[in-house]
Amino acid sequence: MRYFLVLLFGIGISGSALAQNGTQISAKVLDAKTLKPIVAVVVSIQNTNFTQLTNSEGTVIFESIPPADYLVLFHSQGYKDALFPITLENTLAFDLGTILLELDQVAEQQAAVIQLFEDDLTDDNSSSENTSGLLQSSRDAFQQAAAFNWGQARFRIRGLDSENANTMINGITMNKIYDGRPQWNNWGGLNDATRNQEFSIGTTPSDYTFGGILGTQEINTRASLYRTGSRITVSATNTNYSWRIMGTYASGMSNSGWAYVISAGKRYAEEGHFEGTTYDANSLFLSIEKRINDRNSVNITGFYTPNERGKNSPNTKEVNTLTSKNYNSYWGYQNGKIRNARVKTIEEPIVMLNHYFKINDHTNLNSAVMYQFGKIGNSNIDYQNANSPDPAYFRKMPSYYTALYGADKGEFSGDFIPDYDNAEQNRIAFLANQQIDWEAMYRANQNPVTDAGSNIIGYEPAQSHYVWYEDRNDDKTIAVNSNFNSQLSENLIVNAGISFRDFNSHNYQKLLDLLGGAFFEDIDGFYSGTQAQSDLNNPNRQVKTGDRYGYNYNFTATVLEAFSQFRFSYNTIDFYLAQSFSKTNYQREGLYKNGIYETISFGKSQKLNFENFGFKGGILFKISGKQSLNFNAAHLTKAPNLRNSFSNARLNNTIVSGLENETLNSLDATYVFRTPKLKARVTAYYSTIKDATKISFFYAEGIFDNEAGYTNTNAFVSQTLTHLDRKNTGAELSFEYQLSATLKTTFSAAYGQFIFDSNPNVSINNDAVATTENTNPSFDFGTAFLKNYKQAGMPQQAYSLGLEYRDPKYWWIAPNVNYLAENYIDVSPVSRTNRFYTNPASGFPFPEATPERAAELLKQEQFDAVILLNLIGGKSWRIKGKYLGLFASINNVLDSKYKTGGYEQARNANFRQLNQDVSSGTPSFGNKYFYGYGRTYFVNLNFSF
């Protein structure tokens, strides 16, 4: 490796060319409205290695440019790009004159709307995940369509979720160690404060990190980079919140070397687009920079964005048919107010300290330290010795009676015996009681108080049968990072960085509300004796509001990462090489001695250690000033995330059997054609993720057989998939043409094939049969035949056609129409194993389990394609040197109803039960779906001064 690096340096130094005689190019860049100079505009001569930043006067000068035809690009965050063709001959100087950059209000306002789709539904049992927050800084027409037009349908760039991209703030990685994904809500509602962004797509080089196969997003909050001034924004919408107000002030750099930025906002909804979805979010941001001297500056940044939102339920077709696509079973009225049982609460402040050290004109060293702490809670209703409070519980639905079958007749299925009378009674009862009955739970937790005549005169608290609790994790993260950047020669730039993160997470169940009761027993009602105890060190506890119960453990993790990157640039070719190394450690520490796993639940687990490497490279051919051809390739390994490393972390220290590093490969090729009127990009890509692990939990009926030594064939189980491979291939098209000075058209297309590329191994863990002798009650279900099934939760095809009119009087309108197709249900792996075809009562195959019927039952559901028509527009005014901007959009103008995600219920865990349920025509355990927003609006009014 030493000789390899020496060779790279040798190539760069020897490739340095002496400056040759040529033409000087100059320009001055001003704001089109204020006519004030714009500092730090990136000015680049396309397909060359000539790049400069404008100075404090807005001026840029290139020296010794050889004669040729060029395209000069002017780029600054928040402004429209300006591209100018020039022809240089043998002259001493070429002055482009004054370049006026206009504010890009379309992109700026779209970034505000992108925030509407940032809620990640993965914690709601959906495989859908949104990555539009990654794309706010993008200028590419395709990436804008992916974020703004397709984000509402849960489209994912290249079929990859956000754990495959690095999201960074001031050089610090913000992806959570627990699941590898960024928590967007940690900086939600701070659009003004987070607008300084850089985004690299795929494995293209980044100055800040090695990156993932999806890309890298860097958010820069250095105070001196913000445009000086104030901005007040008021918004109204009917999506996840109803209204928003936000204010931001940036001081600019003072003569004494101080700069600061402050931003605050609030978003709120009594009820969002879906029934019962409350929303309350506050946002506060502060950044202060002190310029010590010309070479050193320090900056401190703070984020505080407490927020909570009521979730919406996935529903079966039966439930949505009886109600509506906006139905939500998670809420009910209490004292006339909406109360949602499942509320996600996030409160994780962030404090960062950055040091910017300019070693010389070509070398910089930027270092940072971050501390993040706080809580994430997901609430729900717990109950003992009582009926489920869920109004859409399967026993309360008509299908519970219309899907009835009699007892098996030997090896053969029983008769179909629907009970339509009781089904009708269930239907009537459900329609009359569609929401959670909070009052009934309070009464169940209390005893009546009577007078001498046995008349009820009140109620007194008793043992609670129902309580409101939250699954809580209190995380603390300390991160340090140092990033080195140096231009060693005219042709070589070196980047290197090292980072360390220390993560501590306290996970427990917290009782929030006794719902009128006096106490709640800390036991598991599905078990008896010592197995029912949550903590044998403190048995038979009676818990009250604020107490921890159920489970209680710590996660600790450390991650050390380092990378180096060498970027070479020549007249007709650029290329880069990068490598990375990481070391990861995980450990669990149980704080409860669980009654089911009394020997392996309390104390520390074995420590998990992973070492990983990554390599990537790319080459850019500069065909001409207008055309380029780019190739990128990467091979890397990464540790499994903490979430999927322990098979049932809430109860014990057991590590997933056969756990290993994931292996990722990525290839892509891109052709770019760019002129002042036409911008086009075509990309083809290929990526694989191998040896992934996935853990899930569910209740299954008929999953075990007598040969397993377990007479009850039903159980609540944890399912672990190992050696799960994915393959993503496809192409992207971005097209933008300026029809006239005021009219522009865009077309974007995405075509992908995202499939499972292996048959993973399935193991099922059944806590009910655990003993002190059998501490790992895991059953090997063999192979799940998932190869060539589609990955779920996203459209695999997407197309967008848009038209944009910008009037010289500063108003604009931009309709677009979008077609999204090939979105699939998330399949149940256990239904794709050989065990699925075995009768649990006898151990023999079901006689009715023919290949033809199995193919029908197990065919992956494809959602209907959807057409979304969107309309956006705006107007800006200059009022005595101040600026007023109006932006409005209507998404899904046609009010299309469409599914964004869903999953097969795994409760029918053998062929006969699934066949009977489906054959009834009204399955009790049909697929559950999430739906997209119907017609929505967004109105944004901002005042800048």
Notes on the protein architecture:
There is one protein chain. The chain has 945 residues and is mostly beta strands. 8% of the residues lie in helices and 47% in strands. It has nine helices and 47 strands. The protein has a 27-stranded antiparallel β-sheet that branches. A four-stranded antiparallel β-sheet has the order 3-2-5-6, with no helix packed on it. Mean pLDDT is 90; it is low at 1-20, 112-129 and 706-711.
Q: Poorly predicted ranges (pLDDT <50, ≥5 residues)?
A: 1-20, 112-129, 706-711
Backbone shape:
globular
Number of strands: 47
| Strand composition percent | over 45%
In terms of topology, how is this protein built?
Elements: H1 2-14, E1 23-31, E2 42-45, E3 51-53, E4 59-65, E5 69-75, E6 82-87, E7 93-101, H2 105-114, H3 141-149, E8 165-169, E9 172-173, E10 197-201, E11 215-219, E12 229-237, E13 243-250, E14 258-269, E15 279-291, E16 296-304, E17 307-310, E18 315-316, H4 317-322, E19 331-334, E20 337-340, E21 343-347, E22 350-360, E23 363-383, H5 399-402, H6 420-432, H7 438-444, E24 446-450, E25 456-461, E26 466-487, E27 492-513, E28 520-521, E29 542-543, E30 548-569, E31 573-590, E32 603-604, E33 608-622, E34 627-638, E35 662-674, E36 678-700, E37 715-738, E38 743-756, E39 761-766, E40 778-783, E41 797-807, E42 811-821, H8 851-857, E43 866-879, E44 882-891, E45 899-903, H9 911-919, E46 928-931, E47 936-944
